[in-house]
Structure prediction request, 192 residues.
Amino acid sequence: MELAEINKLEHQLSLPVGFFEALLTEDDWSFVIKLHALIEGAISHLLITHIDEPNLATTIAHLELSNTRTGKMAFVKSMTLLEKDSRRFITSLSELRNQLVHNISNISFSFKGLLSNYTEKEKDAFIKRFAIVQPPLNDKLRREMILHDPKKTIWFSAMTILLSVHYRNKTFALERYVKAHSIMFAPEEQSD
Prediction:
């Protein structure tokens, strides 16, 4: 069910259906780069749909994603389009992506390698930034699961965000339809 809804969002973003699902087969470096591009495209689409001004598509597309004062996430926060944990995830993903793309030697990046160098406190911070999906397990087991497969954790967190974007877009379209319908079929005021 969830992937079918994400497939609809992929179609709206002119991506091949199954793009998101196929990210799990990518190496960790490619996974981060492609996932970031997908999230950025989805956020641009969310803003354009919410503002309902297609002429702003190019302008919005060129805004920096995670700039909290003048970027897309500043608009998302101001318009309360995503929850705080989703915004934190996107900002964290952008920071990781920027670290990876600005030094070509990072092409061999792996989550396991990254986490192996982290202290316990840094691992906890990683979990807070990237694990939106919180399995109903005790904290120790949840922590072990996330650290065992961080890529899948990030993928599931991204799924949560993409579904939120997709459903918000559907809600905006429905709200516009209802508003237009009520204007078109409003009873005419009678003059006395």
The mean pLDDT is 89. The two ends are 55 Å apart (CA to CA). The chain has ten helices and no strands. Residues 150-184 form the longest helix (35 residues).
